[in-house]
């Protein structure tokens, strides 16, 4: 069926305006909780969650790289393990020393991403070295 009010201009006194989430005032970008920079892990956490997740990522990465070190002839795995340990130590220092919450959480997220990136690159390099 056709909506008889489809072509009418929008009125501010429309009693049904709040019923439809797709109508009405759009939130400003800074009020939108769905934006990446507005996620709770980057705005309200103290940083402990990043240390826990980063620690899990570091342990998994180190175990995997230690296993790959046995077949690694290019000496990639052991330096990667050292870098991952240093990155995690850096995350602990950031958690303890950086006072500004937003900066602390951003640096912890970057540290977590760096651990994952170093591990991924190291695994790819070891794997590529094994291809004849």
From TrEMBL:
<feature type="transmembrane region" description="Helical">
    <location>
        <begin position="105"/>
        <end position="129"/>
    </location>
</feature>
<protein>
    <submittedName>
        <fullName>Uncharacterized protein</fullName>
    </submittedName>
</protein>
<feature type="compositionally biased region" description="Basic and acidic residues">
    <location>
        <begin position="1"/>
        <end position="26"/>
    </location>
</feature>
<keyword id="KW-0472">Membrane</keyword>
<keyword id="KW-0812">Transmembrane</keyword>
<feature type="transmembrane region" description="Helical">
    <location>
        <begin position="75"/>
        <end position="98"/>
    </location>
</feature>
<feature type="transmembrane region" description="Helical">
    <location>
        <begin position="49"/>
        <end position="69"/>
    </location>
</feature>
<keyword id="KW-1133">Transmembrane helix</keyword>
<feature type="region of interest" description="Disordered">
    <location>
        <begin position="1"/>
        <end position="41"/>
    </location>
</feature>
């Amino acid at each position: 069926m056709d909506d008889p009010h489809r072509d009418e201009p929008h009125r501010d006194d429309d009693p049904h305006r709040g019923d439809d989430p797709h109508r009405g005032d759009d939130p400003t970008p800074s009020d939108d909780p769905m934006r990446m920079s507005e996620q709770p892990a980057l705005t309200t956490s103290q940083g402990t969650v990043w240390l826990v997740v980063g620690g899990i990522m570091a342990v998994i990465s180190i175990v995997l790289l230690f296993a790959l070190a046995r077949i690694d002839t290019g000496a990639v795995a052991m330096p990667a393990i050292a870098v991952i340990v240093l990155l995690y130590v850096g995350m602990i220092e950031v958690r303890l020393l950086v006072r500004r919450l937003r900066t602390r959480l951003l640096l912890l997220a970057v540290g977590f991403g760096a651990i994952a990136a170093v591990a991924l690159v190291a695994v790819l390099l070891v794997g590529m070295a094994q291809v004849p």
